[in-house]
Amino acid sequence: MLKTIDALGELRGTRVLVRADLNVPLDGTTITDDGRIQAALPTLARLVEAGARVVVISHLGRPKGAPEDKYSLQPVVGRLGELLGQEVAFATDTVGESARATVDSLADGRVAVLENLRFHPGETAEDEGERLAFATELAALGDAFVSDGFGVVHRKQASVYELATLLPAAAGELVLTEVEALRRVTDEPERPFVVVLGGAKIADKLGVIDALLGKADRLLIGGGMAYTFQKAKGYEVGDSLLDTSKLDVVREYMERAEQGGVELVLPVDTVVAPEFSADAPATVVAADAMPADQEGMDIGPETATLFGEKIADAATVFWNGPMGVFEFESFAGGTKAVADVLASADGYTVVGGGDSAAAVRTLGFDESLFSHISTGGGASLELIEGKDLPGISILQEDTK
């Protein structure tokens, strides 16, 4: 069991550090998708209602341990304030003079955001002592800690792990919801249990395939990772994404699926183009007839129909990874088809974060049509794999 906010007791007047995931995509200073800010609201609103002095900490992008203007959290502050219905204070550093002054001036029920955690080298340091030193400085700004950035709970970072050892700590509403939803998929899924995997890198999904070969009834493979499977079957894949180092592993997985009675479904046709470009001419070819000078960009219409049939009667569906280059309109059809089927399915449907969640929003789907859309691609995959997530394990109740 995870410790919850209830375990923190009376919070009025208490400084609560909240590790959120406000790592939103930006076009300059314009937020292009505020999904992660929206996901942080239930926890923040609850703490505000309780009269806590809420100090939000987060990262944005991948700065190298020093300030970079393009990664500032400043653009997030205004949007967060709009959604919370109050002006949100902003500290221009993480643990420095501005942070201390901002926290000191907070009134009960008010919210502040500190600057990007990754502007400090201690946040992502490999050395445990460096992380602990930074976490200690953060801890001095709070009386309690709430971990609600599900997208980073698989990382052993100062604000995710060490900070939870220094203050009374609890899981926020988002983390609790994510863990419950994903464990519903892994622990005792209702059947038929269908897993749909896509995306560019097969290496990112091998652990998931390995873990689910003994649990899933059907495994549907699309996106860039499908071409390594096609190559393992002896098909020409042209200039498509291919990981030749994983061919033997993929062959082993196909054999295990057959032996274990798991239906492993691969594309039967592919949308190809002569180059990776939004306006490249698209052609549909059979999966075993790809021209050597073309590149696979999406699953074809027959595959989209086939995948839809394999998903339609599912009681549980887990989907992670787009079926093609959905950012280009000409190659978004496969991803849209899968999302369409999931949106109308009667079963329990989980979209496993990352590019899949981005595709759902980019393609204009109503998020309420899915049972759960995860905010953490990497974290959701590792939880599905059965890995120990540092940011989750540190929040477990002591059962001794």
List the helices and strands and how they pair.
Layout: E1 15-19, E2 26-27, E3 30-31, H1 35-49, E4 53-57, H2 74-84, E5 89-90, H3 97-104, E6 111-113, H4 128-139, E7 144-147, H5 158-166, E8 169-171, H6 173-186, E9 193-197, H7 206-212, E10 218-221, H8 226-232, H9 247-260, E11 263-265, E12 269-273, E13 283-286, E14 295-299, H10 301-312, E15 316-320, H11 333-344, E16 348-351, H12 354-362, E17 372-373, H13 377-385, H14 390-393
Parallel strand pairs: 1-4, 1-7, 4-6, 5-6, 7-8, 9-10, 9-15, 10-11, 15-16, 16-17
Antiparallel strand pairs: 2-3, 12-13, 12-14
Give the % helix: 25-40%
Spatial strand order of the main sheet: 5-6-4-1-7-8
Tally the helices. 14
Shape: elongated
Which structural class fits the helix and strand makeup? alpha/beta
Main sheet: strands, sense, barrel: 6 strands, parallel
Global mean pLDDT: 95
- N/C terminus separation: 13 Å
Question: How many β-strand runs?
Answer: 17
Beta-strand content estimate: 15-25%
Task: Work out the radius of gyration.
Answer: 22 Å
Low-pLDDT ranges: none
Q: Could you explain how this protein is built, in words?
A:
With 400 residues, the chain is of the alpha/beta class. The protein has 14 helices and 17 strands. Strand 5 (89-90), helix 3 (97-104) and strand 6 (111-113) form a beta-alpha-beta unit. Helix 10 (301-312) runs parallel beside helix 11. The model has no long low-confidence stretch (mean pLDDT 95).
